[in-house]
Request: fold
Amino acid sequence: MAKRVLLRPDWLKTTRVTEIYSVSPCLSPNFADFIPYWQHNGWWFFDSPKIIKDLAQAQAIDLTETTLFYYEAYPLQANTETGVWESFAPEPSFKTELQVPQQKQLRGFDLVSFNCQTSPECSYLSCNQMADQIQVNSFCLLESLESAKNLLKSGAFKNCEPGPCRIFAVYTLPDTFWPG
Reply:
């Protein structure tokens, strides 16, 4: 996903955060409202940077000042009301042929609501201001998968957002991928 990364908003009080690398489009928006173009895969992301570049070129979407991200989802989602871990899968009606980049840099882990079970909704850490209460890095992300799982198990996010929560490893891709 290509996103326009925003600086920490004033209402997020923790000074540890400098930029928002959230999977959620709320604070660092996606490069476009891409869903009407139907180029995304069954995970509601893109299979490769080339698809994003081609879409942007065809639709005259400016990709300057965007950052290219790659996400890996933990295979279970947490039902924050019941504490039960549930499986989930990509939407089968969409072709999903993900190309895993060989070069990627892990930035941390995000926790994102998926009430509609399609595209990412809100980040518990940024949108819900939980970064003010929980130790996060400068990108408003958790440092480890274990930390994310333990916080979910403890009920730390019980009243944040409706629906299940998914954990994502958030990576950035080198500038050689983007733009150009």
